[in-house]
Amino acid sequence: MPLLPPRWRLLFLVVAALSLPVIAGIVWLFLTGSFDEVHGLVPTGPLALKRWRFLWESIGNRPPIHVPLLNSMVFSVVVSVVVVTVASMAAYAISRLSFPGRSMYLGLVLMLHAFPAVSLIIAIFYILRLLGLFDTLTGVILVKASLDLPLGIWLMKGFFDSLSWEMEMAALVDGMSRWTLFWKIALPLVRPGVLALGTFSLLSAWGEFILPFTLIVSTRSWTMALYLQSFIGEVFTDYRVAAAVGLFYALPVIVLFLLGQRYLLNVYSGGVKG
Amino acid sequence: MKGISVRLEGLTKHFGKVVALQALDLDIRAGEMVAFLGPSGCGKTTTLLMIAGIYQSTAGQIYFNERRVDHLHPRDRDVGMVFQSYALYPHLILFENIAFPLRLKRTPQAEIEQKVRQAADLLGIGHVLDRRPAQVSGGQQQRAALARALIKEPQVLLLDEPLSNLDAQIRLQARGEIRRLQQQIGVTSILVTHDQAEALAMADRIAVFSMGKLQQLATTDDLYLRPANVFVARFVGHPPMNLLEGGFENGHFTMGTLSIPVPSGHLKGGGSLGIRPEDATLDGEVPARVVVIEPLGRETLVTLRLGEMDFKVLADQAARPTLGTEVRLGYRRDRVHLFDQAGKRVAP
Amino acid sequence: MRRYSAPLVFLLPATLLIVLFFVAPAVTTLYLSLTDISTITFRHPSWIGLGNYYSLLRDPFIGRILLNTAHYVGFTLLFNVGMGLLLALLTSSVRERYGNQIRAVWLLPRILPPVVYVLIWQGLSREAPYGLISDLLGTSRNWITAQPWNVIVLANGLVGASFGMLLFTSAIRAIPQDLFFAAAVDGATTGQTVRRVVLPLLRWPILFVTAYQTLSLLTSFEYILLLTNGGPGFYTTTVWSLHAYQSALSNYFGNVQFGLGAAMAAVLVVIGIAVSLFYLRIFNFRALVGEPKVEIN
Known about the structure:
Structural class of chain C: mainly alpha
CATH superfamily of the largest domain in chain B: P-loop containing nucleotide triphosphate hydrolases
Largest sheet of chain B: 6 strands, mixed
Strand order of the largest sheet of chain B: 6-7-8-3-9-10
Number of domains of chain C: 2
CATH topology of the largest domain in chain C: MetI-like fold
Shape of chain B: elongated
Strand content of chain B: 35-45%
CATH superfamily of the largest domain in chain C: MetI-like
Oligomer: heterotrimer
Mean pLDDT of chain B: 88
CATH class of the largest domain in chain C: Mainly Alpha
Distance between the termini of chain C: 12 Å
Radius of gyration of chain B: 24 Å
Radius of gyration of chain C: 24 Å
Strand content of chain C: under 5%
Largest interface: A-C, 111 and 118 residues
Order of helices and strands of chain C: HHHHHHHHHHHHHHH
Shape of chain C: globular
CATH topology of the largest domain in chain B: Rossmann fold
CATH architecture of the largest domain in chain C: Orthogonal Bundle
Structural class of chain B: alpha+beta
Number of helices of chain C: 15
Number of helices of chain B: 8
Helix content of chain B: 10-25%
CATH architecture of the largest domain in chain B: 3-Layer(aba) Sandwich
């Protein structure tokens, strides 16, 4: 608020105290993933690297770590690229091209944006089986990318809307086709949007659990979420190993957070401004 | 209610490294209306917001009568303020907007009713009190904002560009209304504006600001007839004063080949000489060529080429010269303004 | 036809994916809910009309599940909106830099992979001497088993609060600065400004967040699945969407009743479509689609 309350320092202490549980959770993850024994948030044993042996050997009948790791990387990168490309193309058309049914299309996108896609998972399971894509990474990628599309189109449309029409007219007068214009001019100009949507869908796919959990069975197609869940889902969870795996899995996200808090705040506040 | 005096002493405001206002000393008399005039970014709004208590001063003091107020929260200063955007609460009807300060003071409902009605009738918005700000005209919003500022009978009324969002016609009418109302109530008022016509028409005295500094505080006549420095000379008056830069020697002002006798014989060194376009004529003795002619209806603005610079003359429509011809420039000798090297007025 | 070749090309991939994974599944859900499809009849389901819906109504646990759903949605919503509002107001009332830092911290639960997030909750909820919650409360329990609902609401809430927090913060920032100045001059304290000016102006954002999160909470079950899987015990924390999922897709009871699950999902799909259509009406939709300024493609 433009006027700082006289006792804002007190308010800061209050809100910082409210935020402690979140910090405590992250600290717990780091400590339990590194020390032999942790009571509350106090390490009582020595540093223990033995629990990180999942990095060089298979544990139980799970696949070696590089399998889910590679799958997760492929999964999130491909989903992100597909979402950004497909959403940008559609958003450009809705924002800039004239065709019948344009406002209906936007209405559909807006509606799907609010529509809770999880409720479709039972039918999606059925459809993937019909298509022969069940239990394949390709299938989950397509599903995940599709479910992120409405948000992506909506976000990118906002960015395309703010481009200048004069620039578009000039390019057309210079003899450019809409296709070239899109790739060479429009898309580079909405780079903040592309980056925001890319980051968003990358993080969202990296953490995705329900879709692979439902649509993947074979361990060779496991993602990191399934790999970690296999440690938690056991009757007796060995938290030391689970925390190490969890830390390993969450590390890219935490590093990204530490490097770009401001940026992420902007992304999650609805795109990137400035 | 009778107004109080407002005194600023060494008032200074820094925003980070930027100096928005530098050591301002200013005395505003009880019941007087003073206009803060200047280009945008000159520090006039900053000063107003410090008087309101919204900005904290970096240094200096603010006194209302003899009471020091610069450490007080706005609500403890007893000021009313009209904002350029009006800042009416969009979710409240006009009645509630005007009643807002009273509600905060837990004034009894009957008293609120009576005061709001009275203020609204005075300002001619009694019939739209049940509407939201977005549902009334700009002029009505402006009056509602004024009513809200006056309802708690403040000691000081602050007006931040209150008319700049109005249509030209309504603006002229509102000018007169505000001035009449202010004189009637006798509340000490400060009007911030960048429009000199507005300042000249409404205020008892005008404070001209530039670059975070007060340039001059004077009545309209003084400002026009005796500008304190080159900035004020150039800023006040339209079309602006012609300023010739040169040097003083032996009772003459010289610029290139031009030499003009000046009344103050003792002046020496560099400086400038100012002549208002309306104080110049086309029947003098200084030769100049006509380069631009702009008919303004009643008068004609003639631009002359004088040595290296342009010189504007406001001539009678009848005396309109021909483009490209030579004319003889003259001026009223008692209306010449002299400034020293630093731009400060030296004479007369 | 040539005239519309450009929009066609641009829209084709998106349309294909939307039809395949939104439209088709919605229709399929409705269709499957009218059949007796299960593990045994997966290849050749037969049409049974509203049979699944009748058995839903006759299910002795349906009351329990509805109650659970209401509990889950209600309390999580209350926490999400309340906490989101509180965080937005507090972080907007301190120096911008500190406010941003706090907001960034609250982003963490949202961007952490859900499985990791749940793992952390499980770790913190363990018995003494390991669990932090047991430490702090001085009672050694597995708090997920002891207080499953509180853990579920809090775990969901810490993630959900950031949604409201970000939206309300933008809304507060959109309030013109002059209104705050005017309130101060009119004599309002910070508390009065919040109550009389800020909160009334946040009415629409609050309504939006509430409506949006009601819909998504109604259908979400990820954290419950991971935290308690509907337990502990029988149906203790099973909500509608989780029950649909388990009936159709998990081998919890051995016999997978795909059709019944689809019927439960169909109810959610219909609610989802109805509510999101309602959003379209509330949004000033026409204003969002300006006519293109170039008339050729």
